[in-house]
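Notes from the 1:1 (GR / supervisor)

We went over the backlog. Supervisor wanted to see one worked example end to end before approving the batch request, so GR pasted a single chain during the call. The sequence is below; no edits were made to it. Supervisor asked that the structure be written out right there so they could see what the output format looks like.
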Amino acid sequence: MTEVPMTADEAKWRARDDAHALAQAEEIKADPKRLDAAKGAARQMVEEETERLVGLKKAAGRPAPSSTPQRGNQRTTGISAPAGKGAKPGPRTQPSNFNVFRKI
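Structure output shown during the call:
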């Protein structure tokens, strides 16, 4: 995906908008009740989006994800199990200089 260059005026207004967002975030963090309410709303939004995505997966003919996330496998952590009898290399190993944040 190519990024359209931003004009100087657009960059100025984006920076101002970002500054307002940062100031608002600091206000929320300083108010424990407001912060708790925001966290609760975030949890609710995650549940709603998860339900929506499960529906999309079903519509696309793909199986829905399990209710419990699988942790510790090589695809998510990049750590392989110790080599033992019959051990095989993982399916997607990355080179040591792999940078997930590189610009494509």
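Supervisor's comment: The CA atoms of residues 1 and 103 lie 11 Å apart.
Batch request approved.
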